[in-house]
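Budget justification note: compute hours in this period were largely spent on complex prediction jobs such as the one shown. Inputs:
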Amino acid sequence: MQQRRDLNQVHTNKVLLNGQLNVPKWWAPTVALLGIMVLIGFTAIGIMVNKGLGVTGLSRPVYWGLFITTFVFWVGISHAGIMISAILRLTQAEWRRPVTRAAELLTVFSLLTALFFPLMHAGRPWRIIYYIIPYDFSRGIYPNIRSPLIWDPVAISTYLTGSTLFLYVALIPDLGNLRDRTTGWKNALYTILALGWRGNPRQWQMQTIGGILLSALMLPIFVSVHSIVSWDFAIIPSVEGWHSTIFAPYFVIGAVHSGVSAVVTMMALMRWLWKWDDFIRPEHFDALARLLIVVATAWLGFTFLELIFAVYGLDAPELALREMQIFHWPWNLLFIIFLFTGYIIPVGMWLFKSVRSNIALMFWSSILVNIGMWLERYLIIVPGLARKQPFVFTWEAYRPSGLEWLILVWSFAWVTFLMLLFSRFFPLVPLFEQKESQVFTDDVKIGRAKVPAIIREID
Amino acid sequence: MTTAEFGKQNWGMVVDIDKCTGCQACVLACQSENNIPLNTQNRFERARAISWIRVERYWEGDFPDVHARFIPILCQQCENAPCEPVCPVYATYHNSEGLNIQVYNRCVGTRYCANGCPFTVRFFNYWEPVWPDSLRNHLNPDVTVRSRGIMEKCSFCIQRIRRGVRTANKENRGIVDGEIQTACSQACPTSALVFGDLNDKESKVSKLKNDDRNYKLLPHLNLEQNVTYLAKVDPEKKIESHSEEAISHE
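Corresponding output:
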């Protein structure tokens, strides 16, 4: 670990609350611009619901396309939260502290965005509510619990509930802090949200226990959410490229890969936009990049394992699908871009320590990963449907319509918009975690250098 | 004969490929019987045409000994249907008559069933269906016009089945074989499509199902289809050549 500055609590409070108490100048124009993009996106969704799915590029047999890809992508991004805040908390990785809240926030907002896609993607979205909340008891028709489309909302809403609680529990001490520094209606709002936080020992104990319990309770979700999303595809016996037993772990590890990369992107932005150089430091990027090398390599293993299974089985339709996915236009171009952006370029970069602690390079490499991970989902979902099928002579490549691309762009604008809106009212870096880590560190002399050492985390 | 009862039949079809000439009369009959919207050029170009039964053409043999073959593909009414378990709202389910039912009112249009179907015989209404004014009075009053955003597929002309069983019931008799016909089997000039009750061992369809030429499509998926096929008889070929691979016996 590098040497770091001794930050006193007054300085921490002042810098980390600049998003709320001392709003940066760029905030209002950026939010206005994103707001316009969000409005355009909602208009596009409105047009689609009004006119019907004919406005998309979907056809027969490519019934699922860009929307389902983007749904899986955002659910994947949401794995950042659980990875950073639950797994790293339970394994007592000290460097997680400044990013826990942002990661958890990314989880909540990306899940909220992901939920939009399957809903608006249905032919009659206004009827979907029936299977998510089965109100129609009178006719004795209950949703079909054998369908993965029932498991999906269960898994995702569990995750959303858990993440929201986790976010809120960790926010309470900071809300108390904000309450004491504001006046007027803001003070009233923070007073209600802070739930009477006084910072006495009992409250701290409750808050800590609550956080640890939620981390542990959410661990199964880490495995379940993306496994269930992968079963949307894996349980279909008749689609080659979908019907695979390794999909659950493959999707989970891929989700961690894209989620943690998204956290890196977000950390770089936070450091640049709010000038939190003292808090989000190169060593954090270094630690995340080292984690990512392991995750990415495991994920690449699964990618090739899937291909090896196909070759090993020597099943002619499966082989034909893989051939199309890898060698036939336009999938071959996408496959090469996917392989280079998803693994070869970023991991090749992260092997060097100079890259790992260079924030700009980390930012761009993490964006590459998410381009690659989006393409990965696209390359799984669409070729499986667009392949040559027996008895169907209308196969064809699917071309997303302009409206679908617009809605894809909307999803990114929407997540950013929500994050920025949140940052206006709540601190993105947990103040108390930051101070706690200061309290728990001590200087140890190694030779001439004074190096901070962590005494302990929580008893 | 005993009285016809609802739910006691097992409806099935046998398609004799040897008799199929590829004339598409079944396609047209289905189109007008079941209120299927007109398949315009644009719909074909966007690969969104709806046709509950279609005649696929394929080529058999190597040059110069090449033959055009036809195979009518319709919903196979699988007993182990991949489309049924994946529907979240039970819009598609299996009834006691061996029919794969599509309930339009329940359908929310996830299109999950269509992804599961290995025969791609499930169709999505991407647009609200429209007919020219001249065709408005041609719509079959017994069949629901499907709105946009829902799936549809071959129903084995369930309106005809219901009417046939009801009539037999009223006249206090059993169902006579051949009395109930789907639109496609009725229209087929060569009687390549044979429809009937598989529970009635004396019916034509039951006998054809026990024929040596009978086989199922995609047997490796174990779908237990109620629509089976009779293999093509090629007089120029020796009988051994299409025994093992081409035909899978029951």
